[in-house]
Amino acid sequence: MKRLLYILFSLISEAFIPIASQCAGGIWPIQDPTIGSYTVSWRYNPASNTVQFIIQGQAIAAVDLTSTYIAIGWSDKAPTMTSMDVAIYFPGTQIVQDRYSQGHNTPSVDTQQDFCVIQSNLTDKNVYVSFERFVTTGDTKDISFSSNLYLMFAMGPYTFSSNTSRLSPQHHFFRIALQRSLSLINCVS
């Protein structure tokens, strides 16, 4: 009987051992009457050493998502647009561009595009995009995800030139920043 109890106890205790390298990720809800309701979420994948981002939301009637960009940016210095790595999603074209901001001008397009779009969908006022990037890319215009970062979210109009396939974001009509830094690759092992 003691042996049977020992075996049973061993099996039960093994079932409750935490799995190594579970990465919780994070969710940032953004709600404002001028834009609608959105969430930005992220999760670190240690197997591929990438961070996957998901932006999803529902715009208010006044926001035309076919001509509005949605941007998230991160900086290891401060929650400002100076020295900020930016991912700009253009729902009307289903493109995510890798850009870099050096101030309050339009972020410049990186020569090395490091985002990989996984899925993108735009239906009326609902938007969804998932994309990923390596933690460290080797690109001087990319900020590594290995340190704590400040996040920023922005939306604004853009134009698209079909002759040149150029996307031109204009000044944002909405912007919000997290005032505290956080880790995008926070994992427990």
From TrEMBL:
Residues 36-156 form the DOMON domain. PROSITE patterns: DOMON. Residues 1-15 form the signal peptide. Keywords: Signal. InterPro entries: DOH_DOMON, DOMON_domain. This is DOMON domain-containing protein. It comes from Rotaria socialis.
